[in-house]
Design brief:
Layout: H1 6-19, H2 25-28, H3 32-40, H4 48-58, H5 62-81
Helix pairs in contact: 1-5
Length: 82
């Protein structure tokens, strides 16, 4: 999954976990404002603390965590360059 955006990767994991009932939106601790920003701003990325909490709540594997943080870093760099 070389060039997947953070937003797309987040929703891939989020949708899977919501659908199988293993998490709820409120468990993630994401504000509605940040969730709306994620949905509407192409390069929006949560802060480091929120990213770590999301990984823990979603129980992402080590490989998924690495991919998640790499996508977040790449999205931040794209935003800085714009």
């Amino acid at each position: 999954m070389a060039d997947i955006s953070f937003k797309n990767l987040f929703f891939r994991y989020y949708d899977r976990k919501i659908c199988d009932g293993s998490i709820t939106f409120s468990q993630l601790g994401i504000s509605k404002t940040d969730f709306i920003r994620l949905c509407t701003e192409e390069n929006f990325v949560f802060d480091q603390e929120t990213l770590a909490r999301i990984c823990n709540v979603m129980k992402l594997s080590d490989e998924e965590r690495i991919e998640f943080f790499n996508a977040a870093t790449k999205s931040r760099l794209v935003e800085i360059e714009d």
